[in-house]
C-alpha cells in the first residue's frame, strides 16, 4: 500500500511540476525508448526481464544525509527565496553509472544526486564528475546508450559518427579515479535560468567543489583496492568529519550556448557562491534517507526564482526517470 501511494505521489508531483515549469516538451525519442537504451532492453523479452529484477541506471549506489547552508550574500544578486533559509536538510545518493549493481569502484565515474527539502519548496540535483557531456540531443543520447552496449564495435561507431561522444571518451580516458566521493568535483551539465534582483534572467550551471580538494588514486594504490571501497570510505569518513562541497552557479555570457550540455563555457565565467553542502550522516535513520532509493531525483523540481532552460536533455530527464521508476514497481 505504501509503495502504491508513493508511486501516485511521485507521478502526480511530476506531472504538475513538469507541465508548469518546462519550457519544452518536444521529445524526438520517447521516454520508453530512452530507458530501453540506458537499460539495454530493446525488445519485449529483455524489457520484461528487466522489470523482474528492477533494472535501473546508477544501480550501484547508497544514500546518506546532511545539510545545506545557503550563502546569505547570494541575495545581493539573485532573487530566490528558497536560499533565505538558515539550514536545510539534505538527502544524498552517491553512485556509479550503469545498470550493474556489482560494478567496480575502481573506474573513474562518480555521481552525486541531492534532495534539498526546505520549508515549502524543494531543490534536486543530478550531477556527475565530468563537465563534458556526450550528447546534445535525444537522438545522440539514444545512439550513445545503444552503441556503448555493443562493446568495441559500438564505441568505434560513436567515435566515427558522433563528435560529442568522441570528445566525451577522450576526456574520460584522461580522468583518474578519485580516492573518495568526497574528493570529486560534480557538475550539473544542464543550464537553468535564475532570477536576478534587477529583473533580468541569468542563465547558469551548477557545480560542486570539494572543500578538501580533488585527490586522485595512483595506479599502485588503485591496484591494491577492492572493487567495493567507496561506500565504506565515505561513511567512515563522515563519522569523523563531514564531507563538504561549495555549491556555485557559473553564469553564462550572452555568447554562450545554454541549451546544449556538450558545450563547455570558459573557466573565466563569473561564479556565484550559493552555499555549502555538508554530508555527515546524522539523518541516516530518518525515513527520507532510508527510502531514498524508492523515489527519483527530479532536476526540474525547482523553487521560485529558478526555471529550466530549453535544453532537450534536461527536459527529457524527469519523464525518463518516471518511466524507469514505474518499471521498477
Give your account of this protein's structure:
The chain has 329 residues and is an alpha+beta fold. It has a domain at 60-130 and 175-312: Catalase core domain (Catalase HpII,  Chain A, domain 1), CATH 2.40.180. It contains ten helices and ten strands. It has helices at 2-21, 31-39, 44-52, 138-148, 152-161, 163-172, 219-224, 230-240, 287-290, 312-327, and strands at 61-70, 88-95, 111-117, 122-128, 186-187, 192-195, 201-210, 243-251, 271-279, 306-308. Strands 1, 2, 3, 4, 5, 6, 7, 8, 9 and 10 form a ten-stranded antiparallel sheet that branches. Strand 6 and strand 7 (201-210) form a beta hairpin. The longest helix has 20 residues, at 2-21. The protein is globular, with a radius of gyration of 19 Å.
Task: Label this structure with key terms.
21% strand; 32% helix; Catalase HpII,  Chain A, domain 1; 10 strands; alpha+beta; disordered N terminus; 10 helices; 329 residues
**Which blocks of ≥5 consecutive residues have pLDDT under 50?**
1-27
Per DSSP E runs of 2 or more residues, the count of β-strands stands at: 10
Helical coverage, percent range: 25-40%
Alpha-beta classification: alpha+beta
CATH homology superfamily name of the domain at 60-130 and 175-312: Catalase core domain
In the CATH scheme, the class of the domain at 60-130 and 175-312 would be: Mainly Beta
Give the number of helices: 10
Shape: globular
- Under the CATH scheme, the architecture of the domain at 60-130 and 175-312 is Beta Barrel
What is the terminal separation in angstroms? Answer: 12 Å
Largest sheet: 10 strands, antiparallel
